[in-house]
Amino acid sequence: MLDKQKKLPDFIIGGGMKCGTTSLHYLLNKHPQIFIPNNEPHFFTLDDIEQNPEFFIKTKQGWNCWDFDKNLPDYLRWYYSFFHEAKENQVIGEDCVSYLYSSQAPARIAKIIPNVKLIFILRDPVARTYSQYWHWVKTNRAIYSFEDMIQFSSGHLLQRGFYRQHLARYFQYFEREQIKVILFEDFIKNVQEKIDEVCEFLQLNQSVNVSNLEAHQNSALVPRNLRLHLLFNNLFKTRICGRKYQISHLPNANISNQNIILDWLTNSFNQLNLTSNKPYPQMHPDTRQFLEQLFAKENSGLSQLIDFPVEQFWSYV
């Protein structure tokens, strides 16, 4: 089934979400011996409705539905197309933050690219959860306060911080020398050192000089008026409409009923109400204490699993 004449990734940046993967992608893409496509293919999680519910949207032509096993030959031809521009001497990569969390991705990756190298970035799960919430707010998907979203959307917000169980699946399928785990806090503190380590991990004979590069690629945007923003998100349900761009590059995706007026309204509202000149509000102390207790329990044994003392950066774990 695999076409040995076609190119597949030599490495994958598999997550996590809001952990610095965009910055890592940007810096590695400056290396002349590395090729990474701009889009996240989501190839190994195409039909994972738990991780990508927004891929399964209904249009005038019917539902978008995906079946990895049934349509694998077609999906593979589509996947190959992401890498056809890579030069012969380049190391090929791809990144997709949902791979870390997917229960299906590890086995699929191991079957199709068994010798691939995997890179994961982990961030203090409390900070990661809070950052994802504000990302949902600005992208018009959050409709409740942070505390209410924790209660009503815990699957996406909380479970994505259960790093130990997610990484354990990968260690079942891959040798330890195929997996590199970086802590976000260590990465932003020692960018050059971490990039050097990644390049060595990929067996490249040179690194990327980051001194003249902007490592931080996703600037935070915060609503001037949170209540108004949540009301808008709930009223117009733009958390779904605003996600259509994410499936536009998927194989045989149908987005025929895209609402141009609603998209314009959403973009206009966001431009008016979002600002980069305002920090996130402080998390409520009780909420922080709850999250620290939860993530300490769920990530017990993580340091032993990845052979790195995470408590060096996350004191509560």
From TrEMBL:
It comes from the Bacteria. Keywords: Plasmid, Transferase. One of its GO terms (molecular function) is sulfotransferase activity. It holds the Pfam family Sulfotransfer_3. Gene3D superfamilies: P-loop containing nucleotide triphosphate hydrolases. SUPFAM superfamilies: P-loop containing nucleoside triphosphate hydrolases. InterPro entries: NST/OST (IPR037359), P-loop_NTPase (IPR027417). This is Sulfotransferase. It comes from Anabaena cylindrica (strain ATCC 27899 / PCC 7122).
